[in-house]
Design a protein that fits this description.
By secondary structure, the chain is of the alpha/beta class. It has helices at 10-17, 19-28, 44-50, 59-73, 89-101, 119-127, 137-142, 144-158, 176-211, 275-283, 290-296, 309-312, 333-338, 346-359, 362-371; strands spanning 31-38, 52-56, 77-83, 110-113, 133-135, 217-223, 229-235, 300-302, 307-308, 329-331. It has 2 domains: 10-158, Response regulator (Rossmann fold, 3-Layer(aba) Sandwich), CATH 3.40.50; 176-375, no CATH class. Strand 6 and strand 7 (229-235) form a beta hairpin.
């Protein structure tokens, strides 16, 4: 790169005057194929998996390149990855000043590439706020794209006025064996469950069709682990236009918070529920189609309940977002502890989700599964 090339930074003055607008512009126009790489030459597999790896020689080259991309092409890179050998004390000072001066670039994920992560590397990341996470060469080859997308989503929320996410905290690492066992159980149990339950599901579908007009299944977008949105399936248990009647029933909300804090909506003895729907809900048979979500990997057998988007958008604060670190599930700690009880508060429900997110493992999931049958029959129509 020719370092004598002039860099026009006039748009950055506008960014200082209207930071929120330009942050959104940068997010919308980021190039998902471009990753700036400093101090490391990737293997071919890493480059192909992550898009275009643009190598730069030093910290100044990297910063100039970021500025030029914005001013010339109106884009920002998808991520900046710097090898530990190219991030000395002077470089850290330079990057800190760069992000302080150009706030629009704070949404770009910044990774420290290390050969073998250790305690000293973890301490280095904690010391320098502009570094988001450690990555290894193996991570770059296998799952760099998903890591970039997740960090980008968190940083996007951090840099939009009025929305916050929890600070990065140490989370107990989950055993890879636990993850394999959990997914294996999900696949086997959901496959067998769908096969065994299919005759009953056909009968339920026919009964729903005979009772009222409208679709047999209720499908809606839900937010699961890491706020990932997927289509969630249940048997329809309400009248066809139930969603349109929701505003009329808000005064009956079991979780009435008077507009303060997270928004959950649950109506006791909901008048929109059909007679068959009442039976399906109380027996939890309406949730059988969620076995398809489990088989597809959208959900797990055990986890936190996936939330409607209008509820999930109220849980992006420091106090509540940790509940999204756990997978979405059919059953979980909340279901066996408080399901169907009127006295449950919003805080109780979320704290149970956070508690599960912090300590879930395969054996704990098995304990929850064993205790789920006792919670299947609920006393209240919610």
């Amino acid at each position: 790169m020719n370092m004598s090339t002039p860099v026009i930074v006039a748009p950055l003055n506008t960014a200082k005057q209207n930071a929120a607008k330009n942050v959104n512009e940068a997010i919308a126009q980021s190039d998902p194929r471009l990753v700036l790489l400093l101090g490391y030459r990737p293997a071919t597999a890493a480059g192909s998996a992550s898009g275009k790896m643009q190598q730069v020689n030093n910290t100044l080259d990297a910063q100039v390149q970021v500025l030029q991309l914005l001013n010339r092409d109106r884009i920002v890179p998808s991520a900046i990855i710097v090898h530990q050998s190219a991030l000395q004390a002077d470089d850290c000072v330079s990057w800190s000043r760069f992000f302080e001066l150009h706030t629009i670039f704070r949404t770009i994920p910044f990774f420290l590439l290390v050969d073998v992560p250790g305690e000293s590397e973890q301490a280095f990341v904690k010391k320098h706020a502009f570094i988001d996470e450690l990555v290894t060469p193996a991570c770059m080859q296998q799952r760099l794209v998903s890591k970039i997308n997740f960090v980008k989503k968190l940083k996007r929320l951090q840099n939009v006025p009025g929305i916050t996410v929890p600070p990065v905290r140490e989370v107990k690492k989950k055993s890879p064996v636990d993850a394999v066992l959990k997914r294996s159980l999900d696949i086997v149990a959901s496959s067998v469950g769908l096969l065994v339950a299919s005759p009953f599901m056909l009968i339920i579908a026919a009964m729903i069709r005979m009772e009222s007009k409208g679709p047999i299944f209720y499908a809606s977008p839900r937010a699961g682990r890491n706020y990932r949105v997927f289509k969630f399936y249940k048997f329809r248990t309400m009248v066809p236009d139930a969603d349109k009647q929701l505003d009329k029933l808000k005064h009956m909300n079991q979780y009435d918070t008077n507009g303060n804090g997270p928004t959950f909506i649950k109506v006791s003895n909901d008048p929109r529920i059909t007679r068959l729907g009442n039976f399906l809900r109380n027996s939890s048979l309406d949730e059988l189609p969620q076995l398809l979500n489990v088989l597809r990997g959208d959900m797990s057998l055990v986890g936190n309940r996936p939330l409607p988007l209008y509820e999930a958008t109220t849980l992006t604060t420091d106090d509540w977002a940790e509940r999204f670190l756990a997978p979405a599930g059919i059953t979980g700690l909340w279901q066996i502890s408080k399901r169907g009880k009127k006295e449950m508060s919003v805080e109780e429900r979320i704290n149970l989700d956070i508690d599960y997110a912090g300590k879930h493992n395969f054996m704990y999931d098995m304990w929850l599964i064993v205790n789920t049958p006792f919670a299947l029959i609920q006393k209240d129509n919610v």
